[in-house]
Write a structure and sequence with these properties.
The structure is a homodimer of 249-residue chains.
Chain A: H1 5-15, E1 18-19, E2 26-27, H2 36-63, H3 67-70, E3 78-81, E4 87-90, H4 92-98, H5 100-107, H6 111-115, E5 117-119, H7 125-137, H8 144-156, H9 160-171, H10 179-188, H11 192-204, H12 213-221, H13 223-248
Parallel strand pairs in A: 3-5
Antiparallel strand pairs in A: 1-2, 3-4
Helix pairs in contact in A: 4-5, 7-8, 8-9, 9-11, 10-11, 12-13
Chain lengths: 249, 249
């Protein structure tokens, strides 16, 4: 009887598994990952990246070491003054280097330069303290509300790095409940990434849009923005229809 | 004739290779790495680590932004003065927070605090400039000689972070040509890791030890250190002999 070697081979193929060096489970050809050499190389890369992260963190720790002391220091040379008269001390050199607005205030013949006092009236002590703290430490902040406030301050004083960090932070936290509010905020402060993320989420959930309180508030406050939402929704529907038509043809 | 299925199976096993998802080469059971799931997970981890590195680098860039401006700033409040009378300007708050020695000088009733001038006579302008620059930026330095000088300065002013960074940098560059000099330097400045690395390299190359000029210089200058080298060499030989004896038994 002639043996069917093809069938034999096929059976064997299915039975030969390899053991994953990482999770220790067996795997078959269809779910093969890497050879051992590439695995070892990748592990080394991961180790090196982790080492680099540790080094960078230690540099940051060193750089921000003086922040807490510096802001209490008698030898600060500028004050940021709030509307209730309370002050936050800082170093002119730090403010100047981080913000072109502070630079203009503190290098030219302006009242701020003569009095060494910058009046900031629209923010709370806590927010302003966090803002100055960020200029010294680049340390991230605890909650969304602070990120919104700091984005506005960063925009006002043109601290680009902080503005970007705040926008990323808020964008990563956009959800159904805050999408409309985030969209309006992003529009007001020209935050493109946040605007896109919020709009995309709103459009994905159009069926519940008009049931939301924030929606009606936005209709009252800024109907043009509501029109933008509907225009984007319509445009997406038209695109989807066009794609479907093409795939049918 | 009875077929030998075992032999057939063995042949097939050797022929079934899988393709590495990373290098695209085929591999066999004996050089199997990971399954696809683990490979994908590892790739994601790598991406995340790289992202974290980018973020940390951007924080560092933001933190050290003021360094170049700050050190030229008219509003610095301390000077480091070299023996030729030249000065490097700095901020009291930065020096105090990075060095307990500067802190003691600038916070107590000492001459340095009254005159706001710290005299540093044993170093060149270039080295002192790099030292102050490091306090503001945590930026690494270009060459070994600078690392040696900065380690000595960091030791004198107790800037631990910089001391560690310098020691790592020098240790990573120990070779046959500088091992004896590095060993002597490490001994003098109590740099344990550097000392171990240098000693280990010297012992590996004992056959050329006495041919080296630095060896004879060390015999003249600090014979106790040379004794330490021989003691370590002897101890290593005794250990190796003991291990060999055990393996024979």
């Amino acid at each position: 009887m002639a043996r069917d070697y093809g069938e034999e081979w096929g059976k064997t193929m299915r039975m030969v598994n390899m053991t994953c060096i990482s999770c220790k489970d067996e795997y078959t050809t269809s779910s093969a990952g890497t050879c051992r050499e590439c695995y070892e190389e990748a592990s080394e890369t991961e180790e090196e990246l982790k080492k680099e992260i540790e080094e960078l963190k230690s540099r940051i720790a060193f750089l921000k070491m003086w922040a807490s002391e510096a802001m209490l220091d008698d030898y600060t040379d500028v004050s940021l003054q709030l509307s209730d008269g309370s002050k936050i001390k800082a170093h002119r050199a730090v403010l100047i280097s981080k913000s072109p607005v502070f630079k203009a205030m503190l290098e030219n013949e302006m009242e701020e330069n003569r009095t060494r006092t910058i009046k900031i009236t629209d923010f709370s002590y806590e927010v302003l303290r966090s803002f100055v703290h960020y200029l010294y430490t680049a340390e991230t902040f605890p909650d969304e509300q602070m990120a919104y406030d700091l984005l506005v301050l960063a925009e006002k004083y043109q601290v680009k790095h902080l503005r970007t960090v705040c926008e990323k932070f808020i964008t990563s936290r956009v959800n159904n409940d805050n999408a409309i509010m985030s969209f309006a905020f992003a529009h007001q402060h020209n935050a493109k990434h946040l605007r896109e993320a919020a709009l995309s989420l709103i459009i994905e959930n159009m069926n519940t849009l008009t049931t939301r309180e924030e929606y009606h508030e936005l209709v009252d406050k800024d109907p043009r923005l509501v029109v933008e939402i509907y225009e984007s929704y319509l445009s997406k529907q038209v695109n989807t229809a066009a794609k479907e038509a093409t795939s049918i043809c």
